[in-house]
Write a structure and sequence with these properties.
7 helices; 252 residues; 2 domains; Rossmann fold; Vcp-like ATPase, Chain A, domain 2; alpha/beta; 4-stranded antiparallel β-sheet
């Protein structure tokens, strides 16, 4: 049975789906409220009804929803970009990762999920409000123990050395290339996301000047398909440009 404090995904339809913790109390929606105690009597895959008789499926939470449903105080990094980062970086159970600019902890959530049980994410953020919100999101997702949040603006050097990956998500990422180089293991990678062409080109040229190799720049686009009998078509709305990703490898 579902245990108290467990993270669950309540699903009714594409508009009515919620990521909640199975803590004592009531969950409210436009279709009525649910006594959480009723959920604790059930297993994943079953349904639970609101006081108005509307059914929700009790599903296991998955990483996409954990990322998309963080409480936002900043623009978040989308799963379409995060997926590419995870496959083009040195992320594995036990990895040590530095992140500059934690924002609302969307990427942090994904990194912490994959470096556990014995890795660590060191997340630097200069804005204390963003940092506190990120901490709440990580606690809700049950991933806070694998993240060390640091209220600090890095300019020249990170505290950690010999790390497996560095993610830079700040306005002037080229200013932290030297700091990333001094912390990365030889042959490991850094990445950044740039919203404008000007930032992208300056970042790439600076990486070349600093001796990084295997430099890749890309944009990731994702379009869902509406499957309907006799009228299947692509969705008209899609998260198109979120930023250009840049990857580079450190040489010794």
């Amino acid at each position: 049975m579902i245990e108290q404090g467990e993270l669950i995904f309540l699903y009714s339809d594409e508009r009515r789906n919620f990521l909640i913790k199975a803590d004592p109390g009531r969950f409210h929606s436009d279709k009525g409220f649910i006594e959480v105690a009723d959920i604790l009597k059930k297993n994943f895959g079953e349904t639970v009804e609101t006081n108005l008789g509307h059914s929700f499926y009790i599903l296991r939470p998955y990483l996409h929803e954990m990322i998309m449903k963080v409480r936002r105080q900043t623009q978040i990094m989308y799963p379409k970009d995060i997926g590419i980062i995870l496959t083009r970086a040195c992320i594995f159970p036990g990895a040590r990762v530095i992140e500059s600019g934690v924002g609302s902890a969307a990427l942090t959530t994904a990194l912490a999920n994959f470096i556990r049980p014995n890795g660590k994410v060191y997340s630097y953020e200069r804005n204390i409000e963003f940092l506190n919100n990120a901490k709440r999101n990580l606690i809700k997702n049950g991933l806070d123990q694998w993240v060390e949040l640091k209220h600090q603006e890095v300019t020249t050097e990170y505290d950690q050395k010999e790390v497996d990956f560095v993610m830079i998500d700040v306005g002037s990422p080229w200013e932290l290339i030297d700091a990333a180089r001094s912390s990365l293991k030889g042959g490991s990678r850094l990445a950044t996301i740039c919203p404008t062409f000007e930032q992208l080109t300056r970042m790439v040229f600076t990486l070349e000047e600093k001796g990084f190799v295997n430099i890749e720049s890309m944009e990731v686009q994702l379009r869902k398909i509406l499957v309907r009998r006799g009228k299947t078509r692509p969705e008209q709305r899609m998260p198109c440009h979120t930023g250009w990703l840049v990857f580079a490898s450190k040489t010794t």
